[in-house]
Amino acid sequence: MDDLTGKCALVTGGNRGIGRAIALALAAAGADVAINYRERRAEAEAVVAEIKKRGRRAVALAANVASEMEVKRLVEAVESALSPIEILVNNAGISQPVTLDTLDTPTWNDTIAINLTSAFLVTQVVLPGMRARRWGRIINISSTAAQVGGIVGPHYAASKAGMIGMTHGYASMLASEGITANVVAPAMIDTEMIRSNPRANPKSLPLGRFGHVEEVADAVVMLARNGFITGQTINVNGGFYMS
């Protein structure tokens, strides 16, 4: 297992929920962490403060990762403040629960842009450095919705399924260069997103409870440290979908 001490990680959507837990877990494993956020700066700064208390470097940077121009500025800012990005966690995403009757094109386009296209944009900008160093970890946060449809809607399921296919593509093309690409697919994790969805019911899970954000973060750290796992989807879902 690789030592993450001094590695630079970028976590998109790292200011709250699963992203926050991932950022803190990577810092606990020795990494320096850039926290990307779009809004709610105070939350991002609070995560940075916690990381610095643990003796690691951290920075909070605002950017809309669905914008190619902003992504380029984000990566430049991370590498200026910390160091070249070696661990990328594409976690930024939105959940807009709708019915089939209310699902419209703008909702579809927004969801695909923020949940899927953003991961592509950030990965493409970070990859040249990883390839030059012949070491990198790309970890995409998908969802069990990619496998079973979920409770949000087809737009969300499609965006998360796209992440899995995209990850397979990167994994197969980068395996010989020391770069791994994997997916973590959570379901029913106790976050603001889940608590705001009235259809989320922990009794629907075999384990009978919502998951904890730290349980997702554990899987991310494992993938960051392991250089022999690539192209895989790690399900953290309380038994909702069994692969």
Total count of strands: 7
For the report, how would you describe the main beta sheet?
7 strands, parallel
Q: What would you call the shape?
A: globular
- How far do the termini sit from each other? 25 Å
Uncertain segments: none
> Whole-number average pLDDT?
96
Strand share of the residues? Answer: 15-25%
Judged by helices, strands and strand pairing, the structural class is: alpha/beta
List the strand order in the largest sheet: 3-2-1-4-5-6-7
The helical percent reads 40-55%
Output the radius of gyration.
17 Å
Oligomeric category: single chain
The total count of helices amounts to: 8
Q: Secondary-structure element order, as H and E?
A: EHEHEHEHEHHEHHE
Account of the protein in words:
It is a single chain. With 243 residues, this protein is α/β, with parallel strands linked by helices. 45% of the residues lie in helices and 15% in strands. It has helices at residues 17-28, 41-53, 68-81, 105-133, 145-148, 154-174, 192-195, 213-225, and strands spanning 8-11, 32-37, 58-62, 87-90, 136-141, 179-186, 233-236. The longest helix is centred in the middle third of the chain and has 29 residues, at 105-133. The two termini are 25 Å apart.
Write the layout of secondary structure elements.
Layout: E1 8-11, H1 17-28, E2 32-37, H2 41-53, E3 58-62, H3 68-81, E4 87-90, H4 105-133, E5 136-141, H5 145-148, H6 154-174, E6 179-186, H7 192-195, H8 213-225, E7 233-236
